[in-house]
Amino acid sequence: MPRVTFIAHDGGRRDVEADEGRSLMEAAVGNGVSGILADCGGACACATCHVYVPAEWRARLPPRGEEEESALEFAIDVRDDSRLACQIVVTAALDGLSVGLPRSQF
Predict the structure, then answer these.
(1) CATH class label, 3-100
(2) Which residues, listed in sequence order, are joined to residue 50 by a DSSP beta bridge?
(3) pTM of the full predicted structure?
(4) Domain spans of the chain?
(5) Per-position pLDDT tens, the chain of length 106
(6) In a 3-state reduction of DSSP, which class is residue 90?
């Protein structure tokens, strides 16, 4: 099972095991990761699962889709490395991924 680290804005770290085929957001919610609200339940409609993906991992992910781009317009502190965790499907290739969390999801 892939392991993923969520890094809070204050530097706190939370390692979780993520089921392959599920979203990164589902892994966070299922493991009680603070800072991932997931208000829309993964419908790519709210941007409350906003994460920052380091450059070395972005090439392993499909690019942001139009729906994700639109949802990110409602997030704060959006950067080039911003993604919605509901749009990242966990695979074995993501074992060891670390993602950052913004200071707030709204």
Answers:
(1) alpha beta
(2) 84
(3) 0.95
(4) 3-100
(5) 999 999 999 999 999 999 999 999 999 999 999 999 999 999 999 999 999 999 999 999 999 999 999 999 999 999 999 999 999 999 999 999 999 999 999 7
(6) coil
